[in-house]
Amino acid sequence: MQLAFILYKYFPFGGLQRDFMRIALECQARGHQVRVYTPIWEGEVPAGFEVVVVPVKALFNHRRNEKLTAWVQADLARRPVDRVVGFNKMPGLDVYYAADGCFEDKAQTLRNGLYRRWGRYRHFADYERAVFAPESRTEILMISEVQQPLFVKHYGTPAERFHLLPPGIAADRRAPADAPLVRAGLRQEFGLDDDQLLLVQIGSGFKTKGLDRSLRAMAALPPALKKRTRLIVIGQDEPRPFLLQVKALGLSEQVQILKGRSDIPRFLLGADLLIHPAYNENTGTVLLEALVAGLPVLVTAVCGYAHYIAEADAGRVLPAPFEQEALNRHLAEMLEDAASRQRWARNGLAFADRADLYSMPQRAADVIVREGA
What we know:
- This protein has 373 residues and is α/β, with parallel strands linked by helices.
- It has two domains: 2-166 and 358-372, Glycogen Phosphorylase B (Rossmann fold); 171-354, 3-Layer(aba) Sandwich (Rossmann fold), CATH 3.40.50.2000.
- Helices cover 43% and strands 16% of the residues.
- The chain has helices at residues 15-29, 61-78, 103-109, 119-132, 148-155, 179-189, 211-219, 223-227, 240-248, 264-270, 285-293, 306-312, 324-336, 338-354, 360-372; strands at residues 2-6, 33-38, 50-53, 83-86, 95-98, 139-142, 162-164, 197-202, 229-234, 255-258, 273-276, 297-300, 315-318.
- The strands form two sheets. Strands 3-2-1-4-5-6-7 form a seven-stranded parallel β-sheet, covered by helices on one side. It has a six-stranded parallel β-sheet with strand order 10-9-8-11-12-13, sandwiched between helices.
- Helix 11 links the parallel strand 11 (273-276) and strand 12 (297-300).
- Helix 2 packs across helix 4.
- It is globular.
- The mean pLDDT is 95.
């Protein structure tokens, strides 16, 4: 079977992009041909993939998206495929992987009426409607059960078109047998003494992930605790606004911001706590990657996967609405309480053994291939 995958950008360090890659590789492993359409591809191309870098440019994203849609549809007319799978909302999809939340709900609840008169709003509303409208035939791969009622509320999407997937944590995120050696090596590389605490925040999109909140919480730590705490931030984003905040808060000696990288498991094993105070997050794969590595987590409840941290008792979940003082307090308490961190780590590892946190690519491929048969 010839499959076409479409996404607006591929780079190795994005959550959506990593999910796409694992699903596409699973489909390929089952004997299907993979063609990818994207205007931006960064990184290596897997053997056997046909990657079509679509030559479209525009001043505004929504105009670029429209040009991309037209270009891809014209190419598919010349070179048909058996199934079209999209990782962003757009017309003409057989299967959509719902990495993003409901745009219309945000437009109605978080924006004023003037916003809904703009061309940008009409574009994204129309593209979302093309996927979720009752008359659409697009099958929907859901990774967050929180979002499904919102799509049904705004579009009346039939329930049978939704397919709820389990998480898809890669096996290399689980704590290996030599975890203590990996931890020691990471801490030595970054000059961390045994009595120092390493806090990590991992994920592209620093603003959405709440890095500003993390920095304020770091600055609010009691002086002695703050002196022995380091924060390493990893993600593919523009760091300058946050480096200015780091300097203004007097944290230049304790905070490092690194670009996206492929050795994230080392940081999960070398750290003492993952902080993730996101403003919004459809899922939050890094939360489960920390859990299966035995790293305690401090996270906001708005994240779709935060409930796993609560179920596993592998850290603390901050309730909504967010309060900075609560984040400050919980961060200080978790850093000071080594016994609880050890308990949360054990709980996370035990949960990783009994829960299905890994089969998303297989389940997604089942739907893609079955629906295309």
